[in-house]
Write a structure and sequence with these properties.
The complex is a heterodimer of chains A (200) and B (164). The relative contact order of chain A is 0.09. The longest helix of chain A is centred in the last third of the chain and has 47 residues. Chain A is mainly α and 200 residues long. Chain A is built from seven helices and no strands. Chain A is elongated, with a radius of gyration of 26 Å. Chain B contains nine helices and no strands. In chain B, helix 8 crosses helix 9. The longest helix of chain B has 20 residues. Classes of the chains: A mainly alpha (200), B mainly alpha (164). At the A-B interface, helix 1, helix 2, helix 3, helix 6 and helix 7 of A face helix 1, helix 2, helix 3, helix 4 and helix 6 of B.
C-alpha cells in the first residue's frame, strides 16, 4: 500500500484526538490583536513613508534655500523637489493599490505574490528617495566645492571625508532596516514563493 | 457592509474547528504554538467573515483562509523540529490492530512531514484531507500537473526516509 494512504487512514483517526474549544474559549480569541505579517508590513511601510516625508519637510527651510541660491543650483533643486513630490504621491498610490489587493481568500501563491509586491512598492520608494537624496547631496557637494576659492585642497579633503562618512552611515542604516527587520519578516514568504517558482 | 453576526460565526467556528486544529498540528510543534496559530487563524477568519458570501461551503472557505494564515500571515515561532515532542504531543498513533512496524512507520512519516517545507506540508495536508488534485491545485495556486509532480516528490521523500 502507498505509504501516504496508510497515513491517510491514521490521519482520519487523529480527529478523535483533536482538542475541542467551546464557545467561551473561542469568543474572546476574536478580540485579540492579530500578529500577521501583513499588519506589520503595513505599519513599517507607513513609518517609512512618514520618515521620508518628514526628512523632506525638514530639509526645506530658509537657510537651505539661501544656500541653494548662493550655489546657483536653485532651478535644478526645485525641479528635483517636484520630481520628489510626484514620486511620493505615485508610490503611496501604488502601495495602496497593492495593499488593497491582498486578500486572505486568494490561493496561497497569489496571496504570497501580492504581499511581496506590496512590500516591493515600499522598497522601490525607499530607493527612489535615496537616489533623490544622493543626487541633491552630490549636486550640493560639487557646487560647494566648485565655489571654494581659498584653501581649496584642505576643504576638498574635508568634504570628501564628510561625503564618505555620510554615505557609510546611510548605507548602514539601510542594511539595518532591510536585513534585520524585513529579512526576518518576509524571509519565509520569499522562500515559499521561490518554491512555487521552482515548479514553473 | 453590515455588521457580522458574531454569535453565528462563533457557532460555525466551533462546529468546524477540527480544520484549524489539523492545520495547527501540521504547522506547529508544541501546545503553545498550536494555540497561538489557532488564535491567529480565528482572527483572520473573523476579519474576512463579512466578505463571506456563501458561494462556497463555509468549511471550504475556512480551510483556505486558515491555510493561508498558517503559510503566509502567521509570524510567530518557526521553532524547528523538536521531533521528540511531536510523537507525543502532535500525533498519537492508534492502530486498530496493534502492529509495531506500522506504528513506527506512521510515526516516521509524521516526522518526515514535519521536515517538509511549508508548501509541501500544505500539499500533504490537503491530500490527507481527501482533497482531489483540482482542488489542491486551486487552493495552492499551481497547475494540477505541478501539484501531482510535487506530490510524487513528497511520496518519494517519505519512502526514502522509511527505507533509511
Amino acid at each position: 500500500m502507498d505509504e501516504l494512504e496508510l497515513l491517510k487512514q491514521d490521519w482520519k483517526k487523529q480527529e478523535e484526538n483533536l482538542p475541542r474549544y467551546d464557545k467561551q474559549k473561542l469568543s474572546p480569541m476574536l478580540q485579540q490583536k492579530s500578529t500577521s505579517v501583513v499588519k506589520w508590513i503595513f505599519i513599517i511601510s507607513i513609518i517609512e513613508f512618514s520618515f521620508w516625508i518628514i526628512i523632506d519637510l525638514l530639509s526645506v527651510n530658509a537657510e537651505y534655500n539661501d544656500l541653494v541660491d548662493e550655489l546657483g543650483v536653485s532651478m535644478f533643486m526645485k525641479g528635483l523637489i517636484y520630481v520628489n513630490y510626484i514620486g511620493v504621491i505615485g508610490f503611496i498610490a501604488w502601495f495602496c493599490r497593492n495593499y488593497m489587493k491582498i486578500k486572505v481568500t486568494d490561493d496561497v501563491r497569489t496571496l504570497i505574490k501580492r504581499i511581496i509586491e506590496t512590500r516591493r512598492s515600499v522598497k522601490y520608494y525607499v530607493w527612489f528617495n535615496l537616489i533623490i537624496f544622493a543626487i541633491s547631496f552630490s549636486i550640493g557637494f560639487f557646487a560647494a566645492v566648485s565655489s571654494l576659492n581659498n584653501n581649496y585642497d584642505e576643504n576638498l579633503l574635508y568634504f570628501i571625508v564628510f561625503f564618505v562618512i555620510s554615505i557609510g552611515v546611510i548605507g548602514g542604516l539601510i542594511w539595518l532596516i532591510y536585513y534585520l527587520i524585513y529579512g526576518r519578516l518576509i524571509r519565509r514568504l520569499i522562500k515559499n514563493y521561490k518554491e512555487f517558482k521552482r515548479e514553473e | 457592509m453590515s455588521k457580522p453576526d458574531k454569535a453565528k460565526f462563533v457557532k460555525l467556528l466551533e462546529k468546524h474547528q477540527n480544520i484549524l486544529h489539523k492545520i495547527c498540528r501540521m504547522y506547529t510543534n508544541d501546545e503553545h504554538g498550536h494555540q497561538d496559530l489557532f488564535q491567529e487563524m480565528s482572527i483572520q477568519l473573523w476579519k474576512a467573515y463579512p466578505r463571506f458570501r456563501g458561494e462556497a461551503k463555509f468549511s471550504t472557505w475556512m480551510y483556505r483562509v486558515a491555510l493561508n494564515t498558517a503559510i503566509t500571515l502567521y509570524r510567530k515561532g518557526k521553532k524547528r523540529v523538536d521531533t521528540g515532542d511531536l510523537e507525543n504531543v502532535a500525533f498519537k498513533v492508534e492502530a486498530e490492530e496493534y502492529d509495531p512496524t506500522t506504528e513506527e512507520n506512521i510515526n516516521l512519516m509524521y516526522k518526515a512531514i514535519k521536515e517538509l517545507n511549508d508548501i509541501d506540508k500544505a500539499l500533504v495536508l490537503l491530500y490527507l484531507d481527501d482533497k482531489d488534485y483540482p482542488e489542491i491545485a486551486k487552493t495552492l495556486g499551481m497547475s494540477q500537473v505541478n501539484a501531482r509532480v510535487k506530490m510524487n516528490r513528497v511520496k518519494k521523500k517519505i519512502k526514502k526516509i522509511l527505507q533509511a
